[in-house]
């Protein structure tokens, strides 16, 4: 039986179709999950995709965290189920308290859509299991509010616990200011929760699943989950 | 039912001006109605008879445009042109202006321009898959222009990024002639299955009319009429005529409408654009040959005490009207509710072809649709050409070049019109949808079509700078350039959409420009066999008596037979040969510096002959380029346009990160007049492509171009760290990169407080 990836659809979500495409390319089944339902429809993995959920009114992700679906997502995560938040999904995870820190307006004060290099910092997560620390992935970003921020204590803890999943680097793996598209603290591009089953990242791996579109490095996030969960789902 | 008495029997001249109606139009309306229209009716007539809605000035001219062809499913007149891509898939596209609103309120003006063109697409049942834009501003160094530019880009990006439709291409141009009238033209391309195509018509008397989306407010009242008069110092005070966008609501409307497409109980769907409910409903009824009755008191409002006049003429954004089968309204309303959208049943279809408005059961307006939609008298303002013979006869080479050739080359690369536009498009999500194979920055954008081997190619191009001297040829040049841009990626043109941006047509020279430009578009489209399937006219781009240069902007959609064959503009391999395809230009008999970007930068003038254009040769050359691409003979192809051969060469070098060395092309033999070198480098002779290819392919390529009756010469080779035109100029690749990439960001990052 194929693994089922639930893809959340909030009003204003727009990378749901792209995520479904990526999931299908990696051989799994994509299941849309409507924001007003509390039902994960038996999904093994949940993706909170990019977009502007509920118009991102108040703050990015601030309203989406109250969606009925998010109760089921929280429960799923508490039970150790994998959750991947991409872009707006990462913002929602932070607002929901499932990940620490916040995502602020880009330092440039402009929206940025561009290719980025990500350095894998940690591999102990269902999403990163087949990746090696230090490995570089080319994955684009597309956001106006992706500048990761956390207070000193939280950042120190994230580092000490090895919960920074990716940093923005140049093509040689150096985390330079020029390679940081949004001014993120310590070039953070993605972080994990304590258990490692919830990953939030601003870059869009679903846009990097085919060489035709510039890179297929993003596809590596999906087989990792498949491998990890395959025995469980039989 | 009786009609409420007219509030004022005869409106004053000032009142008529406010409604953009002339006294003779008022008289025509009264004659057709057999009575005096009341204030509300007058407002509705003013909106629908405005140039923006009626094309009363341009209609006669636009009839010349060829609009049919084997692939054309829908020509001009509906929400967009539609061409058949084969295999049951249709491509719908249109370009529209939002110039006046963007001049007054750049962020919202540009954003709502994008919002409107998006709604046009999904109103037809098509999913919008790509946005492009053509934007023009005044002097790029001027503080106010820099702000306006930044804010227009912000507005376009904000709306498209939020809705999740990629902005994949466009054109940016600066010239002091657009100082008071910026141009913001937005194009949207949508895809639909043939059976999903929805018509924007009302039918079936008794069927209910629904209004869904935003509540109706006082924003944008007189937007259509505002767009049909000149801007003046008081334009700032018209800010209430600019609408405010809500892309979140739009995204919900888009998804909800696309879910309903194909529903047998959906009779017609239309967006509320210019002139709001009045225009959308009247046009739906007129197309369906029925009438409509609207109860304004049933329209949900944003503000209290709105009058029927305000409700009917509001241009509040993110609203759609639909006609559904009687008894099914509840089901549709529930479908909208699922997306958090409010809808009202605001009226019904009636048999009589009348547009009737009631307020608390009292009839407040009643106009025959024939009068309202097509009763406007067509206008045929006098057209007469300005005397430009002396300007055309001037020899541009008599002016002393202010710079060395190398310095001029770098200055051109630093001109925001030639420079790298990444500063613009990195603010646009150009990837969402996962179909953008080649995004902004190339000759044409390429989008894959799911499950097919062919692909869409899209480009936006405007008339050559010499348009004020010869609008006919300058517009034909835009068509040829678009065809070249498509050919460079390997695509064949399928259809054109056009946005005609002009000054005040009541001035004879402007009416002449409009007529000539339409004739040029018709000439080229007919000669090259491309139907013009949709369009929009933006007149009165004028400030204190000064009109903009004639600026027809074209959006052209092409089909690439095999996605795998797509080509880029950048050099790919060290050691490749560089060839010039097409007439060499700039020879002693064809020194074409007139209207060039060089002339603009170096001398700040427009003079000399307009570049020659040979449409038959253009056809042969484009076919040859496509054939060479199909036979995998080329490694790059780039259209030779703004900035001439030197800038084209530098762009291919910069895009590929490789230097290049060429000799100047050989022209017809003879004397080289003084200044020849400048024309050889920077002259904008038409019909040329710069290509690169493996040395092993030289013989085959030479034969291919010869077989296609297309001039071709091998000019040089890719490689090294300099870009050289032997004997004329040399620039350093790294230095060129710095000025080309830096030109726009450097200007935009200057502090706003520091002045010009």
List the helices and strands and how they pair.
The complex is a heterodimer of chains A (234) and B (756).
Chain A: E1 4-9, H1 16-25, E2 29-34, E3 45-48, H2 68-78, E4 83-86, H3 88-95, E5 102-104, E6 112-120, E7 136-143, E8 147-149, H4 152-160, E9 164-169, E10 188-192, E11 198-201, H5 221-233
Parallel strand pairs in A: 1-2, 1-3, 3-4, 4-11
Antiparallel strand pairs in A: 5-8, 6-7, 6-9, 9-10, 10-11
Chain B: H1 13-18, H2 23-33, H3 39-48, H4 51-54, H5 59-62, E1 72-74, E2 81-86, E3 89-97, H6 99-104, H7 106-123, E4 127-137, H8 143-163, E5 167-174, E6 183-193, E7 208-213, H9 223-226, H10 247-260, E8 266-271, H11 276-288, E9 291-295, H12 308-313, E10 319-324, H13 329-338, E11 343-350, E12 354-359, E13 362-368, H14 369-374, H15 389-393, H16 405-413, H17 422-425, E14 436-438, E15 445-448, E16 455-462, H18 471-489, E17 492-501, H19 508-528, E18 532-538, E19 542-543, E20 546-547, E21 551-560, E22 577-581, H20 597-603, H21 615-630, E23 636-639, H22 644-656, E24 660-662, H23 676-682, E25 689-693, H24 698-707, E26 712-718, E27 722-725, E28 729-732, H25 733-749
Parallel strand pairs in B: 4-5, 9-12, 17-18, 24-27
Antiparallel strand pairs in B: 1-2, 2-3, 3-6, 4-6, 7-10, 7-11, 8-10, 9-11, 12-13, 14-15, 15-16, 16-21, 17-21, 19-20, 22-25, 22-26, 23-25, 24-26, 27-28
Describe the structure.
The complex is a heterodimer of chains A (234) and B (756). By secondary structure, chain A is of the alpha/beta class. Helix content of chain A is 22%, strand content 25%. In chain A, the strands form 2 sheets. A 9-stranded mixed sheet of chain A has the order 2-1-3-4-11-10-9-6-7, with helices on both faces. Chain A has a two-stranded antiparallel ribbon with strand order 5-8. Chain B is built from 25 helices and 28 strands. Chain B is globular, with a radius of gyration of 26 Å. Chain A binds chain B through residues 11-12, 14-15, 17-18, 21-22, 50-52, 54-57, 110-114, 140, 142, 144, 204, 206-207, 209-210, 212-213, and chain B through 154, 157-158, 161-164, 246-249, 251-252, 339-340, 425-434, 436-437, 448, 563.
């Amino acid at each position: 039986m194929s693994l089922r990836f639930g893809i959340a659809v909030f009003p204003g979500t727009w990378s749901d179709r792209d995520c479904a495409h990526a999931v299908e390319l990696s051989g799994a089944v994509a299941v849309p999950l409507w924001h007003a339902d509390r039902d994960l429809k038996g999904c093994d993995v949940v993706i909170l995709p990019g977009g502007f959920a509920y118009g991102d009114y108040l703050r990015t992700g601030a309203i989406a965290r109250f969606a009925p679906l998010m109760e089921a997502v929280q429960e799923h995560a508490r039970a150790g189920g994998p959750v991947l938040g991409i872009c707006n999904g990462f913002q929602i995870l932070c607002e929901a308290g499932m990940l620490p820190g916040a995502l602020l307006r880009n330092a440039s004060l402009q929206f940025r859509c561009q290719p980025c290099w990500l350095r894998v910092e940690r591999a102990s997560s269902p999403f990163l299991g087949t990746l090696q620390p230090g490995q570089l992935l080319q994955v684009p970003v597309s956001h106006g509010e992706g500048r990761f921020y956390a207070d000193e204590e939280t950042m120190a803890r994230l580092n000490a616990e090895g919960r920074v999943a990716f940093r923005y680097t140049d093509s040689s793996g150096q985390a330079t200011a020029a390679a940081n598209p949004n001014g993120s603290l310590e070039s953070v591009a993605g972080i994990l929760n304590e258990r490692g089953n919830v990953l939030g990242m601003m870059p869009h791996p679903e846009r990097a699943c085919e060489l035709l579109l510039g890179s297929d490095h993003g596809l590596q996030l999906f087989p990792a989950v498949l491998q990890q969960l395959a025995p469980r789902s039989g | 039912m009786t009609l409420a008495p007219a509030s004022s029997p005869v409106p004053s001249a000032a009142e008529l001006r406010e409604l953009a109606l002339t006294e003779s139009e008022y008289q025509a309306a009264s004659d057709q109605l057999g009575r005096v229209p009341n204030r509300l009716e007058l407002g509705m007539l003013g909106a629908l008879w405005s140039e923006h809605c009626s094309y009363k000035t341009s209609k006669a001219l636009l009839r010349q445009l060829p609009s049919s062809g084997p692939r054309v499913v829908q020509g001009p007149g509906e929400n967009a042109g539609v061409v058949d891509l084969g295999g049951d898939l249709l491509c719908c596209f249109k370009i529209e202006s939002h110039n006046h609103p963007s001049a007054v309120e750049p962020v919202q003006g540009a954003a709502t321009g994008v919002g409107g063109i998006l709604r046009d697409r999904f109103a037809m049942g098509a999913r919008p898959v790509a946005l492009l834009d053509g934007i023009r501003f005044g002097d790029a160094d001027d503080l106010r222009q820099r702000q306006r530019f930044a804010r227009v880009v912000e507005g376009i990006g904000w709306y498209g990024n939020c809705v999740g439709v990629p902005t994949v291409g466009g054109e940016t141009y600066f010239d002091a002639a657009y100082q008071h009238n910026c141009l913001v033209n937005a194009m949207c391309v949508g895809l639909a299955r043939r059976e999903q195509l929805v018509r924007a018509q009302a039918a079936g008397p008794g069927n209910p009319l629904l209004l869904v989306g935003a509540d109706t407010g006082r924003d944008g009242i007189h937007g259509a009429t505002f767009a049909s008069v000149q801007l003046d110092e008081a334009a700032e005070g018209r800010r209430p005529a600019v609408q405010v966008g809500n892309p979140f609501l739009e995204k919900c409307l888009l998804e909800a409408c696309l879910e309903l497409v194909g529903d047998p109980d959906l009779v017609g769907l239309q967006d509320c654009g210019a002139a709001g409910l009045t225009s959308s409903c009247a046009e739906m009824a007129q197309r369906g040959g029925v009438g409509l009755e609207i109860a304004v008191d049933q329209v949900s409002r944003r503000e209290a005490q709105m009058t029927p006049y305000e409700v009917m003429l509001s241009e509040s954004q993110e609203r759609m009207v639909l006609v559904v089968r009687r008894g099914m309204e509840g089901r549709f309303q529930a479908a909208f509710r699922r997306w958090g959208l409010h809808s009202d049943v605001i009226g019904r279809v009636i048999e009589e072809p009348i547009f009737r408005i009631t307020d608390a059961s009292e009839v407040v307006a009643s106009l025959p649709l024939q009068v309202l939609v097509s009763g406007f008298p067509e206008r045929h303002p006098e057209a007469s050409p300005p005397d430009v013979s002396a300007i055309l006869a001037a020899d541009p080479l008599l002016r002393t070049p202010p710079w060395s050739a190398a310095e001029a080359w770098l200055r051109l690369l630093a001109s925001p019109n030639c420079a790298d536009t990444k500063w613009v498009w990195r603010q646009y999500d150009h990837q969402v949808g996962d179909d953008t194979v080649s995004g902004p920055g190339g000759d044409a954008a390429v989008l894959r079509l799911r499950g097919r081997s062919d692909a869409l190619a899209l480009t936006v191009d405007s008339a050559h700078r010499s348009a004020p001297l010869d609008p006919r040829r300058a517009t034909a040049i835009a068509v040829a350039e678009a065809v070249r841009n498509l050919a460079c990626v390997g695509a064949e043109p399928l259809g054109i959409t056009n946005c005609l941006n002009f000054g005040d047509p009541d001035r004879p020279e402007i009416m002449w420009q409009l007529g000539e430009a339409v004739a040029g578009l018709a000439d080229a489209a007919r000669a090259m066999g491309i139907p013009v399937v949709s369009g929009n006219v933006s007149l009165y781009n004028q400030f204190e008596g000064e009109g903009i240069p004639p600026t027809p902007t074209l959006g052209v959609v092409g089909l690439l037979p095999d996605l795998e064959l797509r080509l880029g503009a950048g050099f790919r391999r060290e050691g490749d040969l560089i060839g010039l395809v097409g007439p060499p230009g700039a020879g002693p008999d064809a020194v074409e510096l007139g209207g060039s970007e060089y002339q603009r930068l170096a001398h700040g003038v427009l003079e000399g002959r307009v570049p020659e254009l040979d449409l038959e040769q253009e056809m042969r050359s484009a076919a040859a380029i496509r054939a060479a691409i199909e036979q995998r003979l080329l490694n790059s192809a780039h259209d030779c346009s703004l900035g001439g051969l030197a800038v084209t060469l530098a762009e291919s070098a910069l895009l590929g990160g490789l230097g290049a060395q060429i000799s100047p092309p050989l022209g017809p033999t003879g004397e080289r007049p003084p200044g020849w070198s400048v024309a050889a480098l920077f002259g904008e002779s038409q019909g040329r492509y710069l290509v690169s290819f493996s040395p092993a392919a030289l013989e085959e390529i030479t034969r291919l171009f010869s077989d296609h009756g297309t001039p071709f010469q091998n000019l040089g080779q890719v490689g090294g760290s300099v870009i050289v035109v032997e004997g004329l100029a040399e620039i350093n690749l790294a230095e060129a990169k710095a000025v080309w990439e830096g030109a726009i960001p450097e200007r935009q990052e200057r502090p706003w407080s520091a002045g010009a």
